[in-house]
Amino acid sequence: MVTNADEWAYENFKDSDLGDPRRTQRLIKLAASYAKSIGSSTVECCEGDDSQVEAAYRFIRNERASQA
User: Fold this and answer.
1) In Å, what is the CA distance from 60 to each residue of 4, 23, 31, 34?
2) Weakest mean pLDDT among 5-9, 55-59, 64-68
3) What pLDDT is stored for residue 2 in this prediction?
4) First-to-last CA distance in the chain?
5) Domain ranges of the chain
6) Could you tell me the CA-to-CA distances from 53 to 35, 57, 68 in Å, in that order?
7) Region 5-66: CATH code
8) CA–CA gap between residue 2 and residue 56 (Å, rounded)
């Protein structure tokens, strides 16, 4: 049984084929952040860290990530 958001995200998305392993890692990180802050905005999930917010939005807009 998965006991925390990081483990849950890893177990659910570790085998995602997004064409680049960095995208898979970003997906895992984002999924864990969203799971820890259900109902929060992307900015809140990224704890207001501008670089993490930009990385999240770049990932979300990436066609290769959204088609997987």
Assistant:
1) 23, 10, 12, 13
2) 64-68
3) 58
4) 26
5) 5-66
6) 16, 6, 21
7) 1.10.246.40
8) 24
